Amino acid sequence: MSKWLFRWLHKPIYEARVSELIKRVSYSVRRGDSLLDVGCGGGELGVRLGNELELKVEGVERFPREGCRIGVTQIETSFFPFPDNAFDHVLVADVLHHEWDDDILLKECLRVCRKSVIIKDHKLDGVLAIHRIALMDWLANTAYGVECIYRYRTCAGWHHLFSRLGAHIVSEITSMRLYPTGVNWLFGGRLQYFAVIEPTQAECE
Ligand SMILES: C[S@@+](CC[C@H](N)C(=O)[O-])C[C@H]1O[C@@H](n2cnc3c(N)ncnc32)[C@H](O)[C@@H]1O
What we know:
The chain is α/β, with parallel strands linked by helices. It has a single domain (2-198), classed as Rossmann fold, CATH 3.40.50.150. The chain has seven helices and seven strands, in the order αβαβββαβααβαβα. It has a seven-stranded mixed sheet, sandwiched between helices. α1 runs parallel beside α2 (44-53). The radius of gyration is 16 Å and the shape is globular. It binds S-adenosylmethionine. S-adenosylmethionine binds next to α2 and β2.
């Protein structure tokens, strides 16, 4: 019952998030491109991206959900069963902060992408940032049984990770209007992070 209530309360917030993310992703892709949705969850975001932006979307998941709305491959580690450059784009939306070894996972994203890796995640910035992100993380994930490790990066931390992996930033958004007004005030804005990165040539070929 409580899980049902959580999901019901979360639905309009998730809907606003999906609409905003589709808009942001649309600037980086072309109709007909392929996209790997890493940690696709129930596939809600992936299926909308496929339909609205006309992308060929498939997912990989550690814990595939019943009735996932896109084709999904289950993985047991952070390594993907795909060759180098297998997809035009890789999307990793609110997944990296669930991984202790986020560098291994992001490196794998860079390996299988031909054009770009699109990252949506959180960013420690502002008053009580860690407490606000941790609460949001728990609220959004508890009903789905997704483990939270409550470890987040600052903007400098993201930049450090990208440069360690030899990737460069194509575009970056450090404050987002992702949720309905009141919710955005508490959990949106500077706590949200979006970046499009590209592998170096060596990573690509
Ligand atoms: C917060 S949900 C995000 C779901 C979806 N990306 C979205 O934006 O709606 C995080 C998902 O990432 C998955 N996950 C965590 N670590 C992963 C990994 N190393 N590889 C693939 N999926 C992973 C979890 O099982 C969970 O479904």
